[in-house]
Amino acid sequence: MEAEKVQLIPIDIKDVKLIDWLVDRAIVNRLWNEECSELRELLKQVSEEECPLIELAAEIQPPFYYHDSVKILQQLEQSPFGSKNLIGQFNHEYTAKWARIVKLYEKDATFLADSAKHIIQNVKYDIPLFKKQISRATQVKQDSIKKQADCSNSIAKYQIKYREKCADIGISGDHVRSELVSLVQDLPLLMSDITADISSLQSALSYYQVFARFLIKDTELEVCPLLRHVINHGNSTVNQWETGITQTPLQESDTDSSVEIIDPIETQDKNGCIFVSDDPGSLAAEESEDKVTEMENTDPECDIDFGIDTIDFGADIDFGEEIIDCGGDIDFGDGAIEISVLEDGEDQKNELILDNTATRNKVVDELFELSAFLSARRDELSRYSDTILAEIPECPVEIQTTQLENIEKMLVGVTVPLDKLTSDKMRHLLLLRNSEKYLDRLTDSMHSQLRLCDKMEVRLTALATH
User: What is the Cα–Cα distance from 359 to 225, expressed in whole angstroms?
Assistant: First the structure.
């Protein structure tokens, strides 16, 4: 076999034995590492010096290997700093140092041993380390992608929940506080609509009463009396319902409104979160006056009987004889005052039926009662024949002629006002009308969903930037 072909035959050498293989075949001196002290000193010097060639300065970054040194020397030779004198030495000291470095690398094939050393280090330490770092970075990237997806889903979930809450209450959600206050002002109109819906239940209530009287055999039985009163007299006062005396209802302007209507200064962030700040000067409220009335030309002296007999303390008490000087006469006023005490429950009796808590709950109970009766009657007619009750003697004509379709229409009519009175929107409106603190709590509860969206977006941005 030709010598050239023999040299082309590859040889398998274990990586950790590469330097030993070079030393055993006398390609590299056994003490090559100890003889590289001058080479290391030169490499340290050129790394600390500034390269005169600007284009090459960015590429000169330690550590330097043999092939890096050869490349740097070639570029310096092609530059103005590569000129030589008559004896073949470089004129520029920086270029001469790189020429010396290359010469020391090539002496006794030191560059082969140095390259073998770095190959062993890369194979044994650097490559496994890089693999671990790549695996760890891949896992972190996958976790980050998963967390970003979770944050995006959470943002969408919070926004949907916020819109659902707004839809349940009946607001758009752009300016929560001002919209809630405006919604409370529409409460009387909503109560009027509910009254109109209840007024349309005359036929359903009559049918229920006829059926109950027929079953119980009591011709004077009255079912759902409060519903019948609302149907006949509308949303009257509680006093009119209890006494039958017509009375002017208490107007909203005559009552103390717990929710003060203020034009808030609102700012909105990118998610629609509202931050409210009011002018302190505009929020100054006048203190409510006491219910006292001055009476002129009355006797300031009056005897009050508190109904208390003389108290025996069981011992003589010495209160002392020292006279206290108050510093002057105290003027208690010239006129007498009279304290007006309202009778317990008088304000509640002047409220409208649907505004008063007790009567409104009674209306809801009677609507549930009527709905339960109609539902039971609908199931009976759908299971059995319509003529079963007609065979019973003395069965009223109204019961015999009422068909299943009529029952279903009555049930739909009862469901409309019942749903309005028991809805979350009505519950919130009634609480808002009676408590300003509830307005603050509800507003903060609505904004909490948007604040969670903001937190998720901050976290999503942080994950995207890392």
Answer: 11
27-71 pLDDT, tens digit each: 888 888 887 888 888 888 888 888 887 777 777 777 778 888 888
Q: Cβ distance 214 to 399 under 8 Å?
A: yes
d(C-alpha 218, C-alpha 220), whole Å: 6
Residue 237 CA, distance from chain mean position: 42
Q: Residues 10-15: contacts with CB within 8 Å, 24+ apart?
A: 15/119, 15/120, 15/123, 15/124
List 295's β-bridge partners, or say none: 336
Distance CA 132, CA 126 (A): 10
Q: What's phi and psi for 267, nearest 5 deg?
A: -120, 145
The string of DSSP letters for 157-211 reads: HHHHHHHHHHHHHT--SSSHHHHHHHHHHTHHHHHHHHHHHHHTTHHHHHHHHHH
Q: Please name which of 190, 196, 237 lies closest in space to residue 352, comparing C-alpha atoms.
A: 237
User: Torsion angle, CA of 125/131/133/134, rounded to 10 degrees?
Assistant: 160
Q: Give residues with Cβ within 8 angstroms of 87, minimum separation 6.
A: none
Helices of type H across 25-126: 37-48, 54-57, 66-78, 93-106, 110-121
> What span, in angstroms and rounded, lies between the C-alpha atoms of 427 and 258?
16
CA distance 83 to 92: 8
Pairing of strands 292-295, 265-268: unpaired
Alpha helices per DSSP H over 296-423: 346-349, 357-383, 397-401, 404-422
Single-letter residue type at 100: R
- The model's pLDDT over 308-347, given as tens digits with 9 standing for 90+, comes to 444 444 444 444 444 444 444 444 444 443 433 444 455 6
How is residue 452 written in tokens? 């969670």
Q: Is the dihedral of CA 327, 329, 331, 336 positive or negative?
A: positive
- Residue 256 makes CB contacts below 8 A (sequence gap 6+) with 288
DSSP strand pairing (274-277 vs 292-295): unpaired
User: Taking Cα atoms as reference points, which of 102, 97, 22, 110 lies closest to residue 52?
Assistant: 97
Burial class of residue 384 (count of CB atoms within 10 Å of its CB; 0-12, 13-18, 19+): exposed
All residues at 6 or more sequence positions from 38 whose CB lies less than 8 Å from its CB, including other chains: 104
- Contacts of residue 37, Cβ cutoff 8 Å, sequence gap at least 6: none
The 3-state DSSP class for residue 56 equals helix
